[in-house]
Amino acid sequence: xxxxxxxxxxxxxxxxxxxxxxxxxxxxxxxxxxxxxxxxxxxxxxxxxxxxxxxxxxxxxxxxxxxxxxxxxxxxxxxxxxxxxxxxxxxxxxxxxxxxxxxxxxxxxxxxxxxxxxxxxxxxxxxxxxxxxxxxxxxxxxxxxxxxxxxxxxxxxxxxxxxxxxxxxxxxxxxxxxxxxxxxxxxxxxxxxxxxxxxxxxxxxxxxxxxxxxxxxxxxxxxxxxxxxxxxxxxxxxxxxxxxxxxxxxxxxxxxxxxxxxxxxxxxxxxxxxxxxxxxxxxxxxxxxxxxxxxxxxxxxxxxxxxxxxxxxxxxxxxxxxxxxxxxxxxxxxxxxxxxxxxxxxxxxxxxxxxxxxxxxxxxxxxxxxxxxxxxxxxxxxxxxxxxxxxxxxxxxxxxxxxxxxxxxxxxxxxxxxxxxxxxxxxxxxxxxxxxxxxxxxxxxxxxxxxxxxxxxxxxxxxxxxxxxxxxxxxxxxxxxxxxxxxxxxxxxxxxxxxxxxxxxxxxxxxxxxxxxxxxxxxxxxxxxxxxxxxxxxxxxxxxxxxxxxxxxxxxxxxxxxxxxxxxxxxxxxxxxxxxxxxxxxxxxxxxxxxxxxxxxxxxxxxxx
Length: 609
Description:
Blueprint: E1 25-26, E2 36-37, H1 39-51, E3 64-69, H2 75-85, H3 87-90, E4 93-97, H4 100-114, E5 119-121, E6 137-141, E7 158-162, H5 172-184, E8 189-194, E9 211-216, H6 218-223, E10 229-237, E11 247-248, E12 251-252, H7 254-261, H8 264-276, E13 284-287, H9 291-303, E14 309-313, H10 321-332, E15 338-342, E16 354-355, E17 362-364, E18 369-372, H11 379-386, H12 404-412, E19 418-426, H13 436-441, H14 447-460, E20 464-465, H15 466-500, E21 503-511, E22 516-524, H16 529-537, H17 548-559, H18 564-577, H19 581-584, E23 592-597, H20 598-608
Helix pairs in contact: 1-2, 2-4, 8-9, 14-15, 16-17
């Protein structure tokens, strides 16, 4: 059987048992509000509390930890419940994120879950830090906590870093925040939450966080029925050629790739593929590499194909925040069926869909189709994009007595049983681009299986279930391996037979001055069975054994039309006189020179006569 790869990590992982399968668990409340956690969320929460020494009898509690929960598994719910349950210990909690959307999202959910209005420290918003007026929760942007504003903050017992894969030891802004709050409170606890714990620049998170308390990746979540599984089409864009794009920090150089993708031919072909795969019917999210590509692609979809498309980016010089908010709202409420984006929706953005709680009617299916118009070699970047469409419809998997089997069945019967992914690859195929097979199979399947699965999907040009594609590729690789081993065994057996048929042929040289003669000895092969059958078919007559080379020359003469009897006579004459080209053609360096006595030479002549 094929060995499975171990999951790579960039920091030391504590050993945690796989979360049990089952239904939701009610958490003891410390306020008038009550929330319900899924089984793995409760397991994750208790793991954090144990590592922090908040529960149990942990002799070696840590001051910092990170958790990995795939997109759509409720990271925010876990860290808010951690803060809510332990607010008496922490006193004050700060949540730090790097985007406006993440800060706003955390603030909304904190208010929903705790009933407390958190303070906002971002841009023109300032948290009230005067004594007696401080909020228990502060949601802040990393950029706003600079040297001029950070000294105002004190009294925090818990620091939560959202999208913690950004918080490397080399990132001075995070380091400055941690150092300040820890100087104020040496007992500060730090929790990092992320869907993708590995950084593209390979900078280890282990230098910031002492332990990883819990992990659940997309693959396990899909198998346990918490996230929808993908069907994939791999489409080769003939006008796209990335062979000259360099690799920078483990990924394709964005500036060079942008120039290629912004060209007219690739833009038109990508638009054609997107529409053909359903961008005009399914709620579609398209990821691009540059602002120009996103804007041009959106215009093409609108003007040429009549698709209701909008585009967003993070560059406020090209697109205002107000315009971006309106576009995102239009996509969520269904006014737009296609949303083209660059560097905005990879993190902290949700579009889970909407279901009428009374009738069960699907008001909004959420993201149904993802187009990867931003080729990448980074598993982190791809996972972030892919995760935008894996959420099931609300209420589908959360019910009493749920099990993996029942959740998978409920999802299969829902209005969103799968997420469709369209992977675009260039015509050179020089770069090993990341695909869905890497995200769902990269931990458990070798590289050769991932490549074979991607190649199969590209050649078939039809929708493929990724898990089945991976299983098929693994079987194909295994069969090919067995076939290679069988062929090798047969080849070795043939070589052994041929080796046994080698013999020595002597060519007598003139005597030397010391009464010795030397012979050139060369190991040669006898004629093959195929050569013998041909010569017999042509009624070629010979005495003794033919070498492979002699038989080859005879066959060549016969095939050129020479008389078979004449060729036979020539061979007999040459063998009788010892005029053997076989040895004369051997380079001098390759000959083995062995001395023989005159008596031995005389015996050779007598044997010939």
